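This is your field. Pick holes in the following sequence-structure pair:
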Amino acid sequence: MAITFILVVLLIGLIVLPLVSIAGTQRNSIKMDELEKELKQLKTQLANYQSEKSKDSAKEEIKKEIFSTPELKTEDIPVAKETVIKEAIAIDSIPKFESSGKKIAPVKSDFYDKITEQIRSMTSSEWETLIGGKILNRIGALAVIIGVGFFLKYAFDNNWITETMRVLIGLAIGFLLLFGGHYYHKKGFLIFSRGLIGAGIAIIYLSVYASFNYYHLVSQIVAFAMMIVVTIISFWQAIKYNSLIISLFGWLGATLTPFLLSTGTASESGLLSYVAFLDVGLLYIAMKKERWLILEPLSLLSTILIYSSWNWSYFLPDMCLETSLFLFLLWAIFLASEIIKISSLKRKITLVDQGISLTNGGFFYLSLYWAVNPSHHQLMGVLTIVVAAAYLGIYFLTRKKRQGEEYLLTRYLFSTLLLSVCASFIQFKNFEITIALSIESFLLTWIARKDKNILLNLASIAILILSIFNFLFIPTAFNIDAKEFCLLFNMRSAALISVLLSAFGSGTSIRINDFKFSNIIKPALTYTWIAVLFTLITVETSDLFDCLWTNSIGSIQTFYKDNYIWVLVLEWIILSLLLFYYSFKRQFIPHLYSSFIITALILFFSVINGFLKFSPLSMFLPLINIRSIALLIVCTLLWLMLATIRRENYNFRKTFEKIAGISIALLLFILLTSDTRDIFGKKIDSFSEKDSTQLLTSTVYLMQLCLSGIWLLYSITLMIAGIYKRNFGIRIISIVLFGITILKIFFYDLSNLDTLHRIFSFIGLGFTLLSVSYLYHKYKHLILPEKLAVKNPT
């Protein structure tokens, strides 16, 4: 014990005596600084009283006096840069007097800027003071820690000191250093005292760690509690002495505590409660000391490191609910800090604050997803909605408190949107996702229109596109099973209607000149909702007839299977007409072009399906069947569009006249040909097996002659209409149809007739062609231009 006592005394002597010596030197240095300061003030006042110059010259004299460096002897201690600044402030506050003895205002010169420049160009003496007074203090504290460590190790290796005494010595030295730091701080040795306190805290941390990990003198719980106490002492000392470096010592010790005291097993509740306690303490200090901004990101870093380490090594799926509660707690702590910053208008939200907020939200959500989603997928969607609602609440708070900070509002709103989209994909599937995304897009459009925020408009469009892509990749998007289908009352219809409303809402909320690409986006949205409406009509009608076909038999089943296309044509006609007349009312070109596109599709399917045989023929009635009615309505549609375009006098009027005239002529030709063919086809189908082959053959020949006759009459009609309307396209169709009919008669019809019928056919054909020639000559003034008609008189 005697040897132990001697060693302890020797150790304390080795530590304390150098410290006392350094402190004495520092005290003499401060006294010299004060004397130097008083001397400068006296010189300045004397110069002011003796000065008889103008105000400007007085200013220059004061500047020279301030920035002049007095000669110091070698044994003098140079003035540190803090002292220079204090002197400048003191000199600036001294009243200035003119020769008349009247008091004048202090000279307002750029003291701070010039003194700053002088500090930047410090002399060698000043650098010597900085190094000797501050840097050597830090190095000295570190050297003491290392020296004590080596001495203790040497003593421990030689068993001079028992394990309990080793720890007690470490604690005694640590608290002795804390006491010394307090003592010298009161004496004015600010930098020196902070070094002592930092060294003391570090030694106490090491002593507690050694008591648990090396010597097993205390249990893990006791050691953990001791570490918490040391951390509290550290932060208390940091606040008391206004020292960031001490708080960093406390942060480092608090962060390393879970790693240093690890035993291979971890208590989730204890560890994460400790992390929450640490976060609250650090964030509180950061709010109280605004200049200690580094503590907040360091606190978040500690949280990420400790949680990630625990999660990687000890997390189990059955712990997910408890873990999610702690994750919410840790996230809420930093979120509360954000809310306080937003509510406090005195403080500006910096990029560092934004980075902390994003890191906190991102780490929390990814950790929550990793913990909860594998075993509770549906719960994860609900939790995501809760988090999104929290950020939406912060958005409204920010909007109320910091309305002008658009970047902040946009970030919180985009966080809400991103989480909402994630929740949609987690919580729902197939058509439900499309509906959810469309609703989000619609709500975002409403907010964007209210706030007049272009970025939100673009975000709503992005979500709308995402919903459309999701719909396209659903397996049953275009064909629902007949057993599950219910017209319009199904998830597909709901999805399409939601997309339609979202696109329509986005399109109406954007004006052509709102932003750079609005003249492209607005028409694109219009085409989008029209295409969605067209798709809705088409797929629902198609699946309806598929359902009817499945639940019917016989001729009705065949009718449903082969004629649903004509029902679609009729529906498309209605849609095309509505868009066409709406375009003239609103003078919006996309509606007009959409109407033309749908009309082109109507013509295409009408021509392709018009030549097909009506099915079933047993239900066929000439001109009173769905095909004929549809073809006549298509012709009416084209006529109405043509009449409207003529009235409005559009620049594409002539082009549309030609296209519409040719289309009507072609559709009427299809109608006459198909109905004539099906009249005879129905009669042929009624023949029984007992009927002779000759009867069947004669009926077929008669059908061909009737077709030829109808074509000739129709050609004449077209020629008359072409001449009367002066429509070159219709006359060309008439001539072409004449040519086809003549070839058919000569090479097919006449070859199957007897001599007498052949004679009458030739005569009839000749009179028909002569009649056409007569019409051309009689009305060529309507066909040819005026000059050509005069040159070629009849």
